[in-house]
Design goal:
Largest sheet: 9 strands, mixed
CATH architecture of one domain: Up-down Bundle
Distance between the termini: 92 Å
Shape: globular
Structural class: alpha/beta
CATH superfamily of one domain: N6 adenine-specific DNA methyltransferase, N-terminal domain
Strand order of the largest sheet: 3-2-1-4-5-7-6-8-11
Number of helices: 31
Helix content: 40-55%
Number of strands: 19
Length: 858
């Protein structure tokens, strides 16, 4: 059975739990990623004589498994990894972690247990059989771990990792062709763990040649492992200081030139000039444009990259916003780069994206082929190519993100929008525009984005005359023109003319939303949107239903998502990127695992229902205590099976649940009414409210009191002694009884409480039993599902239904926005100021009259 990506991620992060307490979070990676590497190459290449990675004798993961419980497990794991490193020239790459370190892993039995458990977690992962074309299971798992390591490591240790979402933007805007040959080279001078290089390679289907340099030894080792795990073993990664000792040079001593470059250098690196003399740089990196300031290295890395590009080379570099507007030496360099027309684009990113800093950053896109010749006239470039003056294309993408814990993250929709707008050079109000060079010169070559793009929202200004005389300003209604264009008759049906420049509302504010939903214009619009969804379904349903073993999940979702995005292009009011995001969210949360499973095991996986793994949320539970069993539908959730095959049983359970809810509400209200001071239930509360046991104890106390009140020979005593909630509930025997102590009145309340409590308990038991009976029936149904039924349940009831819901939600959003604004305007100007003043005067007069009657003025 295929391993779900979500399950793989969970298992890997669970392995980190075994290491907590003995080391800093930044050190987890040295152990977990090494073990992932050993497991992967052992599963993939063991006993394969022609493999790129050789697994030597006594150097595999299976040899580690044999050590579980061994008193010398740490030392022997070091030797196993050492053999694997020696056989593949990976010394200093995979053997950095000490598996026999008592300070980090514990002493004696603690180390043995910790390492045995750790190996056991990886032992459960089967990484041998990966029949999914184009899938990068291990690469994605590596990215998942790196992101979590960076998150837990905090500011000081997270700089080795560039968020995958930002890497995707750079990989796309740098302009590498999808069919780039292996002769095309990509360079990252500060490659960290290699994520940027790999994202660029993915854009070109992995055929390009990758070169990287990284100063930190451990991080360079991570990058080498990352290349192998991403099936790029020929990538060349070098460990050294890029600025002081660039490794990639030509025979004549000059810098090697590359076709493309991407980078996320350390922000404002203070020690950038250590080991070199910038004014007399042997590689001439600072001769043309100037020397960066001694305590801020952003432009040092940028100029190194420019020098490392071929004449037609392109680069995309992440830098702090300060490079766009800082003065002095940086201003001179910026001016020179602009005059040489090297900077093609500037993309402003949201703040708090990166793990090393919370400050906002930007992406500088450079095209060296745009550079001006020595006579100062433009050869070509963005402006010249379009018949315009040279300039810079700017994007303000600072507001497009989602919160993720204490960091911000770009969504799929944000990435797609940035890339679409940049590659198409599409000007969007408040988001993107081409800024010609004369305008930049007029701003003294300051590239601060707010100077050129106004992203502020218009202020919602109140109309004084409307507040004084009433009516809704037509100017405010005119601002909703985008809606009136789509719904041509709606405005006149919602509003009627008042005096010049103002309108009256014809529909009460509370009824506006329902009125819009029922309006013929809106119904026609909603139908047209649903038609597009239906057309998308008809186009892709055969592909969905035709998935087979060996399918390419990434190509599959790309085709579906890109077409959905395209079909909603130009649809008024509908944010096509929002619809696209809903599909991509569903893909990440659920659909990706589904497609991966089908690509591995076929549609037969839909008949599988299994017991839940440790820590996994079950779809349903049967039984209690030791007999409790938790189940998960491998591909099809039980809820979908129930909706299709057992709707009546589910409806009856829901009705019973409704009755249970009513009974619980009655009990809660009764308890609230009788728990005040001096009430019958006062003092009978436990940690979670009144308890049945406390009530029963109080009943017995009262029955004992009743014996003391009445003579033992009377019938009343006998009755009091034999009281139960059953015979007491008749109240018949109480007639004529004098109850000076209030015993029977209190018993009356307590027995009512117990009756309500038992009703709730009985109904809870009934609902649980009915639900478990249904689950047992469903459990028996799975093995008998036909391929056609599995296909219907997954494609129609699970996938397509989710997309259709997403589109309906987007239509609902449009309704909510329009109705919300109309209601806001109606409420704002509902009562003119004179009317409010008259109302205040009337209320004041009423108060005076009451005070006079009360004698306050006497």
């Amino acid at each position: 059975m295929a391993v779900k990506k979500s399950e793989l991620y969970s298992s890997l992060w669970k392995s980190c739990d075994e290491l907590r307490g003995g080391m800093d979070a930044s050190q987890y990676k040295d152990y977990v990623l090494t073990l992932l590497f050993v497991k992967y190459v052992s599963d993939q290449y063991d006993s394969s004589p022609y493999a790129l990675i050789q697994v030597p004798e006594n150097g595999s993961f299976d040899d580690m498994v044999a050590l579980k419980g061994d008193k010398e497990i740490g030392d022997k794991m070091n030797k196993i990894i050492g053999r694997l490193a020696e056989a593949n020239k990976l010394k200093g790459v995979i053997d950095l972690a000490d598996w026999n370190d008592e300070d980090k892993l514990g002493k004696g039995k603690a180390m043995v247990d910790r390492l045995s458990n750790l190996v056991g977690i990886f032992e459960k992962l089967d990484l041998r059989d990966n029949r999914v074309t184009g899938d990068d299971l291990l690469g994605d798992a590596y990215e998942y771990l790196m992101r979590n390591f960076a998150t837990e490591s905090g500011k000081s240790k997270g700089q080795f990792y560039t968020p995958a979402e930002v890497s995707r933007v750079l990989a796309k805007v740098v302009g590498l062709p999808e069919d780039a040959p292996a002769s095309q080279s990509v360079y990252d001078p500060t490659c960290g763990s290699g994520s940027l290089l790999l994202k660029v390679a993915a854009e070109a289907n992995g055929d390009v040649s990758l070169y990287g340099q990284e100063m930190d030894n451990a991080t360079a080792a991570l990058a080498r492992m990352n290349m192998i795990l991403h099936d790029n073993p020929t990538a060349e990664i070098w460990q050294d200081n890029t600025l002081a000792s660039p490794y990639w040079t030509e025979d004549d001593g000059s810098l090697k030139r590359f076709d493309f470059a991407v980078a996320n250098p350390p922000f404002s690196y203070k020690s950038w000039s250590n080991g070199l003399k910038p004014e007399n740089d042997e590689f001439d990196r600072f001769q043309t444009h100037g020397v960066p300031p001694s305590r801020r290295g952003d432009y040092a890395f940028l100029l190194h990259i420019i020098k490392s590009l071929k004449g037609e080379g392109r680069a995309a570099v992440i830098l702090p916003h300060g490079v766009l507007f800082r003065g002095n030496a940086e201003a001179d360099i910026r001016q020179s780069l602009l005059k040489h027309d090297i900077i093609e684009g500037v993309i402003g990113l949201p703040p708090n994206l990166f793990y090393g800093t919370g400050i906002p950053a930007c992406i500088l896109v450079m095209d060296k082929s745009r550079a001006l010749p020595t006579n100062g006239r433009a050869q070509h470039g963005n402006g010249a190519t379009k018949g315009q003056t040279p300039g810079v294309f700017m994007i303000d993408a600072s507001r497009g993100f989602r919160k993720d814990g204490n960091k911000n993250r770009l969504r799929d929709r944000d990435i797609h929008k940035i890339v679409d707008v940049f590659t198409e050079r599409k000007e969007v109000d408040g988001y993107a525009r081409f800024v010609p060079m004369p305008e930049i010169e007029a701003n003294e070559f300051n590239l601060n984005i707010p100077r050129y793009i106004d992203a502020t929202e218009d202020e919602d200004i109140h109309d004084l005359e409307a507040h004084l005389k009433g009516g809704i300003p037509n100017a405010d209604l005119d601002d909703l023109e985008r809606y009136w264009t789509v719904f041509p008759n709606l405005r006149s049906d919602l509003f009627s003319p008042a005096r010049p420049g103002y309108s009256h509302a014809q529909v009460p504010a509370r009824e506006v939303k329902a009125f819009i939903l029922d309006h013929a214009d809106f119904q026609a619009f909603a139908a047209s949107v649903q038609e597009r969804t239906q057309a998308w379904r008809e186009a892709h349903e055969p592909t969905m239903r035709g998935l087979t073993v060996g399918a390419n999940p990434k190509a599959f979702i790309t085709a579906l998502s890109e077409d959905l995005l395209e079909r909603f292009a130009g649809v008024p009011l509908v944010n096509r990127y929002a619809v696209y995001q809903r599909l991509m969210d569903f893909w990440q949360e659920t659909m990706q695992d589904d497609v991966y499973i089908i690509a591995q095991d076929g549609w037969a996986a839909g008949r599988t229902i299994r017991t839940a793994y440790d820590g996994e949320d079950p779809d349903f539970t049967i039984g209690r205590g030791k007999s409790k069993k938790e189940y998960v539908g491998e591909l099809i959730p039980p809820s979908i099976v129930i909706d299709r095959f057992f709707p009546e049983a589910q409806a009856e359970i829901e009705r019973e649940q409704g009755r249970l809810d009513e009974a619980q509400q009655a009990l809660d209200e009764f308890e609230e009414a009788h728990t005040g001071e001096g009430e019958a239930l006062d003092g009978l509360e436990g940690s979670r409210g009144v308890t049945k046991g406390n009530v029963q104890d109080r009943v017995q106390e009262l029955k004992n009191e009743a014996k003391d009140v009445f003579d033992t020979g009377t019938a009343f005593y006998k009755q009091a002694n034999s009281l139960t909630k059953t015979n007491f509930g008749t109240r018949e025997w109480q007639k004529g009884v004098d109850d000076p102590e209030g015993i029977f009145a209190e018993l009356d309340v307590l027995y009512d409480y117990l009756s309500l409590y038992d009703d709730v308990t009985t109904r809870k038991s009934g609902v649980k039993e009915a639900r478990e009976d249904l689950y047992r029936t469903v459990l028996e149904t799975y093995p008998d599902l036909t391929d056609a039924e599995v296909n219907d349940l997954v494609v129609e009831d699970k996938w397509i239904a989710t997309v259709q819901t997403a589109v309906r939600d987007e239509i609902e959003r449009i309704t909510q926005q329009l109705s919300g604004r109309v209601q806001e305007l109606e409420t704002r100007y509902a009562e003119p100021l004179p009317d409010l003043e008259n109302e205040v005067d009337e209320l004041s007069d009423n108060v005076d009259e009451h005070l006079e009657v009360m004698g306050a003025w006497s």
